[in-house]
Automatic annotation (TrEMBL):
It comes from the Bacteria. The gene is ruvC. The RuvA-RuvB-RuvC complex processes Holliday junction (HJ) DNA during genetic recombination and DNA repair. Endonuclease that resolves HJ intermediates. Cleaves cruciform DNA by making single-stranded nicks across the HJ at symmetrical positions within the homologous arms, yielding a 5'-phosphate and a 3'-hydroxyl group; requires a central core of homology in the junction. The consensus cleavage sequence is 5'-(A/T)TT(C/G)-3'. Cleavage occurs on the 3'-side of the TT dinucleotide at the point of strand exchange. This is Crossover junction endodeoxyribonuclease RuvC. It is an enzyme of class 3 (hydrolase). GO terms for cellular component: cytoplasm; Holliday junction resolvase complex.
């Protein structure tokens, strides 16, 4: 599975793509940061993020996109920009029919370090180790994007399989109920 992780931000939007499967070795496909100028108007900055992510999605062809779930911060302006950048990433994926998953920062940290409260340095060290990189990805936004992609490969795939299994059980139960109702309407048992 090839997953694009996006660490949304209005000035720096980290993008990391990894390939792998649960229990298998991970491989780095790409890591970069889409940057916009802080002095530009927000609409232009969002357009720049969209253009950058679109180009990477078209070039790298991920199977899924994992975006950091925006959480409340004290700085409303920062959270608004982060949410807007996250929305752009989700829109780019949706236009291409790609599944989108949202993972909290603590989920991504726990997936790569085993600790949902790990600091940025710990996340960067583990991402570097897990992907067998010669040097740590920089800036931290790039490492965070890779952590999101790794999190989705390891947890998202399992979550998707569980959801499919749950749908199958629901479909089987619905089929059994339809059969019971059909038998009842034909004068069969009422149970």
């Amino acid at each position: 599975m090839r997953v694009m992780g996006v660490d949304p931000g209005l000035t720096r939007c980290g993008v990391g793509v990894v390939e792998g499967a649960p229990g298998k070795r991970l491989r780095l496909v790409h890591v970069s940061v889409v940057r916009t100028a802080p002095g530009d108007e927000v609409a232009l900055r969002l357009l720049g993020i969209e253009t950058g992510i679109e180009a990477l999605v078209d070039e790298l062809r991920p199977d899924a996109v994992a975006v950091e779930r925006v959480f409340a911060q004290h700085n409303v302006r920062t959270v608004m920009g982060t949410a807007q950048a996250a929305g752009v990433a989700m829109l780019v994926a949706a236009r291409r029919g790609l599944p989108v998953a949202l993972h909290t920062p603590s989920e991504a940290k726990a997936a790569v370090t085993g600790n949902g409260r790990a600091d940025k340095a710990q996340v960067t060290r583990m991402v570097t180790r897990l992907l067998a990189l010669d040097a740590p990805p920089t800036p931290a936004d790039a490492a965070d994007a890779l952590a999101l992609a790794i999190c989705h490969v390891w947890r998202g795939g399992a979550r998707d399989r569980l959801a499919r299994a749950q749908r199958t059980r629901i479909e089987q139960a619905a089929e059994a109920e339809r059969a019971r109702l059909a038998a009842r309407s034909r004068g069969g048992t009422s149970q």
